[in-house]
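Project standup — Tuesday

K.O.: blocked on the structure for the chain from last sprint. Re-posting the sequence here as requested.
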Amino acid sequence: MRSRKEKSSDGKKVLTVLTAFFNAVANSGSAAVEKILASADSSLSEWVEDKVANSDRPDLTFVGVVVPDGRGAGSRADFALIEKLADKHGAAVGTPRAAVDPGHAPNVWQVGQTGKVTAPQLYVAAGIPGAIQYLAGMKDPKVIVAINNDEEAPVFQVTDCGLVDDLFALVPELTQKS
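H.V.: unblocked you, prediction finished:
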């Protein structure tokens, strides 16, 4: 796991934490909690609504196995291959924006810079080329396996195991044998 220290002399600090990036730690005590009063200027913003997308699939951010597909499947119907493999392992299905925009996959499956961040034990990337925007959503999976028919695909630079093959041939075989 990467470690980074920052120092700030600013009076006010705002921090964000990517939940899938950190491992849980044992409770080692308590921290001081300070209540502050802030006056809200309601003319600056307005709450419109909360929309939460529901899915019957495991959540990408909290699952142990993710089976994503990129443009490799090519259509919504072809995603059935990926879903069968994911179902066999209780895995979440992930995809880059390139498959969400044309409607091949729902937005809740999106991984990457404009999607969710995921850090599973096993990441089986089928047909994922490995664009930098997509790789931003893969935060330190323990093991990355890539299946791509392009042996020069950037995803092979970050994988633990790379299989140069057609996902339409290999994924059904993996599903059957697993």
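K.O.: great, moving the ticket to review. The chain has four helices and five strands. Residues 167-177 form the longest helix (11 residues).
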